Amino acid sequence: MIVLGIETSCDETACAIVQDGRKLLCTVVASQMEEHASYGGVVPELASRRHVELLIPVIRQALSEANLTLQDITAIGVTNRPGLLGALLVGVTSAKALGQALGIPVIPVHHIEAHLYANFITHPEMEFPATALVVSGGHTDLFDVESHGVYRLLGRTRDDAAGEAFDKCARLMGLPYPGGPSIQEAAKSGDPKAIAFPRALMPGTHAFSFSGLKTSVKYALAKPDCPPVPDVAASFQAAVVDVLVRKTIAAAKECGRTTVVLAGGVAANAALKVAMEDACSRRGMRCYIPPPSLCTDNAAMIATTASYHFMHRAIPGLDFAVIPSEPLSSHGI
Amino acid sequence: MILGIDTSGETCYIALIDQANSAVNCTQFNHNRQLIEQLPAYIDTFLAENNATLKDIECLVCGTGPGSFTGVRVGVMYAKTLAFALGKPVIGISSFDAAAYEDISINRAVVCTSKRNEVIAALYPAGSKQSLIGPIDVSTSAWDTWLREHLPGTERIIGQGIDGASLPIGNLALGACLLAEPLLAKGNFSDIDSLIPHYVATSPGGGM
Q: Is residue A249 predicted with pLDDT exceeding 60?
């Protein structure tokens, strides 16, 4: 079984090919990040236009890297929700045309579910149940995952997503977009204890909030005795990491889970990885985090998720829709 | 066989030219903002009704707009992916040229509404398949002057009136296929990778 995955939900045009669910044959990502960087964020119409230009060359490159032809493909997986409507449409249109021309199934994939499944590519031994944190520029969602396809949303951010807080605070600090990598870089030479930024722990809930932290960063930077930017970056990062780790561990304990799964672009943050792995190992929990290239948007995770659906669920027709906003809910593989 | 589609407006047009049997067939449907949900099934049904399958298609033709950004993008992406997957050529044709092709014996203007107080327009002199000017943005208040200046004696306005009214328009996919036929004969195809919609308005990202 060879599944080709397509991902165009935001500003990455991506294609990957996965064999038998967990074996990654190739993954190609054409990022538009530099182009959007000059606007300080993703411009939806520009992203859609670039997907139209980039997608077929990206698919061609993936086939070439895997040394396969389209005739070798068993099924297509494509992100159809959630994401930017116009951007999603390009990938879904192309996937449907491929499926129709080749006479093979096209499987719509939920982007957030796919982030979780990225872990199966590098951690084939991983199994559910688990407590899962999906943390990116658009999401900070904490789930209890009982088994494949059985998700219970425990809590999510009430304002900014963690990745959004990185982007916005990077801008306040005069660091370039995207904020995740630039704050991580600046924080390397900073003191994480320089400023004791507030931790919004939202006791009694599994919800998150990062807008207060953003305001604190703004005020700290405005003070005449503000420490240098690396100290602000390190202190900000420590505050975010602290909240994410404490709330994830608390959720795992409450749900009686011994496996913690991280996913999404912010899971590529090295400080978060170290802190989460440390917190898990001290409590005898297993911790799974994909490598950074599979944390950020990619199509390998789409192909892997589609493979599971292909094996365990009814195949939908080609009339499925593109859905800009839909929370991940159980579908019961 | 040549399969053409145009999705630049609220109606999706599909056409099939069977050169061997000199047969031409067309269909259309109002997609009601559910184009990508409906398009694959319409194509399958239409081909089956004409005793054809995608394997019989020698060339894909698509309207490249201008028109609805999202609509054109779906049509162009669909056609070029079919061409890529089937290993067949694709030819992109301006949706305005396709609209104007319906009757080339008279002076024509093709118009579609754009931003507030503006239309996108192109002018086609009698006998010409190609536009004299446009498609470009024209202010509705300057319309009369602009038309008189560039193509006096325009007998027909196709698409939309400058007041946004729907005016008669032929099957755009058929017009596109007929315009593509001579290009196909000469092997003058579009490059799959660089075939993109015709955007009149520049992107918020600055480039086309």
A: yes
Please give, rounded to a whole number of angstroms, the shortest distance from the CA of B203 to a CA of chain A.
6
What is the SS3 assignment for A145? strand
Cα separation, B144 vs A55, in Å, equals 43
Look at residues B159, B178, B195 and tell me which one is the last residue of a structural domain. B159
User: Stretch A140-145: mean pLDDT, rounded?
Assistant: 96
Residues B176 and B74 in one domain: yes
**Residues B175, B75 share a domain:** yes
Query: Omega into B125 within 30° of 0, i.e. cis?
Result: no
CB B148: neighbour CB atoms within 10 A? Answer: 11
Indicate the domain borders of chain A. Answer: 2-117+294-312, 128-289
Kindly report which listed range (A29-38, A256-265, B195-204) carries the lowest average pLDDT score.
B195-204
Q: State which residue of chain B sits closest to A73, comparing Cα positions.
A: B85
* Nearest residue in B to A58, CA atom: B193
Q: Which residues of A200-228 are buried (b: 16+ CB within 10 A; e: fewer)?
A: beeeeebbbbbeebbebbeebbeeeeebe
Under a CB-based contact definition with an 8 Å cutoff, are residues B97 and B62 in contact? no
How many A/B residue pairs have CB atoms within 8 Å?
A: 99
- Distant-in-sequence, close-in-space partners of B103: CB < 8 Å, separation ≥ 6: B156
B52: contact with A, CB 8 A cutoff: no
* Residue A277 C-alpha from the chain's centroid: 18
Question: Given an 8 Å threshold on Cβ–Cβ distance, is A45 in contact with B204?
Answer: yes
pLDDT tens by residue, A250-296: 999 999 999 999 999 999 999 999 999 999 999 999 999 999 999 99
Q: What is the pLDDT of residues B19-41, one digit of tens each?
A: 999 999 999 999 999 999 999 99
Average pLDDT for residues B107-131, to the nearest whole number?
Answer: 93
Cβ contact (<8 Å) for A86 and B86? no
Interchain contact, B85 vs A98, CB within 8 Å: yes
pTM for this predicted structure? 0.94
Supply the range of the domain harboring residue B135: 103-159
CA nearest B195 in A: which residue?
A53
Note whether B27 and B60 are same-domain residues. Answer: yes
**CA diameter of chain B:** 50
Residue A287: the pLDDT is 98
Answer whether CATH 3.40.50.2300 is correct for domain A2-117+294-312. no
